[in-house]
Here is the input.
Amino acid sequence: MDQNAACTDFPHQSVTFPEGVALDCGRVLPSVTVAYRTYGRLNDEKTNAILVCHALTGDQYVAERNPETGRPGWWELMVGPGKAVDTDKYFVICSNVLGGCMGTTGPRAPHAEKPGRPWGTDFPVVTIHDMVRVQKRLVDHFGIGKLFAVIGGSMGGMQALSWAVQFPDSLVAAVPIAAAYYHSAQNIAFHEIGRQAIYADQAFHNGDYWSEGVRPERGLAVARMTAHITYVSEEALTRKFGRKLQNAEGLPAFGEQFAVESYLQYQGSSFVQRFDANSYLAITRAMDLFDLAGEHGGVLANAFRGAHARFLLVSFSSDWLFPTAQSRAIARALSHVAANVSFVEVQSDKGHDAFLLEEPDFHATLRGFLAGCAEYAGLS
Amino acid sequence: MDQNAACTDFPHQSVTFPEGVALDCGRVLPSVTVAYRTYGRLNDEKTNAILVCHALTGDQYVAERNPETGRPGWWELMVGPGKAVDTDKYFVICSNVLGGCMGTTGPRAPHAEKPGRPWGTDFPVVTIHDMVRVQKRLVDHFGIGKLFAVIGGSMGGMQALSWAVQFPDSLVAAVPIAAAYYHSAQNIAFHEIGRQAIYADQAFHNGDYWSEGVRPERGLAVARMTAHITYVSEEALTRKFGRKLQNAEGLPAFGEQFAVESYLQYQGSSFVQRFDANSYLAITRAMDLFDLAGEHGGVLANAFRGAHARFLLVSFSSDWLFPTAQSRAIARALSHVAANVSFVEVQSDKGHDAFLLEEPDFHATLRGFLAGCAEYAGLS
Here is the structure.
């Protein structure tokens, strides 16, 4: 992949809404393009659509080879024919989030006020709710009045929560997985490390790196490495790497590299080939700003008054980024307003990233929940 | 402080051992200078000396104003007249570690093979055991045959363990606090983030920044910010900052900064005024290489055969960097070889840094332990 291939001119499938969108920050994006993919077939009643929401660095290529990276879709384990999210039965939609770099309007899009330039760091601050309002446009575009389900992990789980709160009549079921209802001080702190690493890269050029023909790859790689540590559990790192060396046996020698270091460096360097630094800044900020309780007088239950989706909450026991306590608090708040809620903590040593990995109990749980909802909704 | 004040020409109190020291890596440092401070009075029998070992970014200024930063000594809460480590009773020694930047030989010292240049990244890889062997020279220099105690937190605790293993006849008591007997994959991963941030700083110049008249301040600041997150607990960050904004009230606004971000940035920017990047690289590596079990066939108890110090192990309940499980494993291994060991887990929400902070139970525990050891050793 050439240096500027990521986030540029790939012909992603998309739809443009020229009427634009008003953002939570008070600014207006005069035109919004949404890049998306679909899998399966929408039934005639348009009642079998599932929206899958991606996480911070995900994209719309859920269940097929990613055309930019050449790698499998990020949730092929979960979404596809016969899978828990069965594309033989459901019509699955996934769109790149607002602020992203895979075809949806983001910092790389043309600046509304400075012709001939991209937004860069001038891109308006966006929120999780803004992302969801843009997804709603896409769903409306398909003529779908009510989604069968909105499913997402991590930041995707925040979106599922936002859907249930903003558009309570537009979904049957909501499945926030490894989710959080607010970003904690520690969550914000880890994001801030990543942002500072990007700012510290001389190639950042105050966000205007495109016009300089460079990219802040080293800073973005450090950001990714930092985030990656938070996605895996201490146990998983120990199991996979322990104190093993990269190219040697036995005791740590001098000048040798530990396998975990090599692994992190690989995570960093492969990431910068597919992701844009300004999008990373915009999306991490959107997550930091998410606070469903704060928006409702500090009482989370108040956020859910009026929400009448059926909820499945899933957390993972070794997730220390969005720990079980977050999902438990959401379950409690939903119960408080008499919502229909199931909550499962999956025992796993894989940390936050468990939602992306082979976790049979989790997959069976989601499959069962969707089957129950399908029966409830009269989908056969 | 001017740009190059840190780690340069301050006249730290020191002693030089021109015979040098052989290192674990197989190389020899031809001459070693050790910068140190002492507090209290060495008794005539030379039996009342306590060596305090500092952590990664600490220094020899334990119990007095630091002359470079103008800030209080890093452990004035613990060490001083009438304090738990009572300088009216004990003679306290603290030296800057090998590889450090406060007067002891480190990357800033003259290169042994390239006259007129500092070592920079050519500085030999050093280990915790090497640091301790250099401390032993200093103790010998004072004519002290047997230390009353070796006390240290975090990396200082690794040194206390190394003392007990390397020089079992040279100390009465060992107090490893918030310590670890090996650096885990996650510990190494966090250090590696810091190192990569330093490498990514254009001002690093492959470690030769001094000759360029610059310093990799931004990279080093990111390294410090990353490490700092690991020193505090999630609870402490929530208690201190939550989602508060730095300069505003109410809900997070756009363009506002969260207080935790401002705090982290301050931690980063103040650190680079007092610490040297090459020392940071050298000392983090020494910690990564520490593995008392690995060195002894994977059996930690084997490390302690022959150790006959009286041990006090202290951990803090919310420390997720060197969690209680580490201290518990050390206690178990010591018990296995019938060593004299006390182990206290202090309930605290302050995380790893609790050992530096006001923790009355911890201070009382250490005071009581030392009193018992003094009675045992016939110190009145």
